[in-house]
Amino acid sequence: MDGTKLRREIQLAWHRASLNGLDPGTPLVEEPICDVDPGSRLMVAAGPVLEDFARQMAGMPYCLMLADRHARIIDRRCGQPGMNALLDRVLCVPGHTYREETTGTNALATAFELRTAFAVSGEEHFLESMKDFSCYAHPILHPLTRRLEGLLDISAYASHATPLFRPYLSWAVRAIEQRLELGSGLTQRQMLAAFQERSRRSRNPVLVFGEDLTLANAAASDRFDGADQLVLREAALESAGGR
Length: 243
Known about the structure:
By secondary structure, this protein is of the alpha+beta class. About 45% of the residues lie in helices and about 15% in strands.
């Protein structure tokens, strides 16, 4: 397809792919497959949604994929066995990371890059090996922190693309986000409440540390980089007796 005939968002995504040294004929490179934690917070929250999809879409030419906050695919459910084989060919498999710098323009990678819902259909894919697909991906945000927790992607043969992808995936993402909130527990709610209360009263740097979460206001982000925050986290945990 002539790149000048593409919508603006796709043109920009193709340009980023070219800057990363890709061309449409670039083969996908196999990377080490990372282990997937079936007990992760995201997997637990998304599990019932994926199971519901598997029941409703049995026998249909659609596939739902879940990726974590690093754009690494951690689960995949396909309505037809043949879809699994096609996705295997483009390395769309659990444990493999899908980012624009290695996989070009596609819904999962570009939604991750832009942090917004994104659709890519047929010829809009940058790599030739993906042009048989039509895909739509939607970020999953934690309802309390608004931090990116992952992405959900629905894919099909390009000839089976439907405008229903968007509302279905929006519903599925909301369901996962609600389960993330329910699973957050009291500690994260307390952290967020304390952070908001202190930030409202002070223009000084405010940092709140949790087991796997750090909240920082603008003043703290400007003053302390990642290494500084790590030192402060260790000091805070030490002074609190590891709590």
